[in-house]
Amino acid sequence: MNKPKGFFLTFEGPEASGKSSQIKLLEKYLKKNKIPFITTREPGGTKLSESLRNLILKVKESINVEEEILMLMAARSHHIENVIKPAMKNGKFVISDRFADSTFVYQGYVNKFGIQKAKNLHKKILDNYLPNKTFLFNLSTSMIISRLKNRKIKNKYDKLDKKFHDRVNTGYKIISNNRRFVKIDASQSIQSIHKTIIKHVNSLL
Ligand code: ATM
After folding, report:
1. Which of 57, 104, 136 to mutate to test the pocket of ligand 1 (most atoms within 8 A of CB)?
2. Rounded distance between C-alpha atoms, residue 9 and residue 16, angstroms
3. In angstroms, what is the span from residue 89 Cα to ligand 1's centroid?
4. Of 4, 42, 191, 192, which has the maximum CB count within 10 A?
5. 164 CA to middle of ligand 1, Å?
6. pLDDT tens track for 39-69
7. Domain of 44?
8. Does residue 30 sit within a domain?
């Protein structure tokens, strides 16, 4: 008998776009339907990668974008080899809150490392390991800012201004011209977004 095939799904988008709430709803749905899955996140996903997350997002010392991207890729390599690939081998759905696309956008575009340079590094270091599908949450800058106002500041990126969020949105627009991406209008209701996600997930089963 053929072993069940795993599936790698990622959630991407700007801050406060509702990714995490949707991941929780999807977890509930998969549990209810007895579909084997794991959820994980980036930066993070392993003990080592979570320590790197703390360094990258909370460190007071300033690090340059090259240092940051190398730390992210080290964390990602550990995550892929120790969590994602083993779960995929066991036929599970792997759901990750952010992955390589965040590096292409935040470091590659927003922090000016270069999208293509970031993609080249991903090819070289991580064998171009990419998700099967990516849900990309789109939200206008004004809505991001208004949602963030109701949220306690969580990391160094949450503090940044309108220009920053505009750049994040532009970065996602640039990298998402590809069939891997399912674009979600994140201003819709939680339930209607959930329905869309379930529809796509069911089409993969
Ligand atoms: P979450 O709050 O979605 O967990 O994301 C943490 C931050 O990490 C997010 N910015 N904010 N706020 C984006 C940033 N990040 C990068 O800059 N590069 C990456 O490769 C990843 C995975 C995340």
Report:
1. 57
2. 19
3. 27
4. 42
5. 13
6. 999 999 999 999 999 988 887 678 899 999 9
7. 7-204
8. yes
Phi, psi of 161 (to 5 degrees): -95, -170
* pLDDT of amino acid 57: 87
Q: Is 42 in the pocket of ligand 1 (CB under 6 A)?
A: yes
What residues are paired with 137 via a beta bridge? 184
| Distance between Cα 43 and ligand 1 center (Å) | 7
111 lines ligand 1 (CB under 6 A): no
Question: Nearest residue CA, atom 2 of ligand 1?
Answer: 15
Residue bearing the bigger pLDDT, 156 or 23? 23
Q: Domain count for the chain, please give it.
A: 1
Q: 26: which residues sit within 8 A by CB, 6+ positions away? A: 95, 194, 197, 198, 201
Assign residue 52 the CATH number of its domain. 3.40.50.300
* Distance of CA 134 from the midpoint of ligand 1 (Å): 16
pTM above 0.85, yes or no: yes
On whether residue 147 sits in a domain, the answer given is yes
How many whole angstroms from 4 Cα to the centroid of ligand 1? 31
Q: Is residue 1 part of a domain?
A: no
Domain membership of residue 123 (yes or no) is yes
Of the chain, the end-to-end C-alpha distance in Å amounts to: 17
Inform me whether the pLDDT recorded for 3 exceeds 60.
no
**Confidence tier at 163 by pLDDT (50, 70, 90):** very high
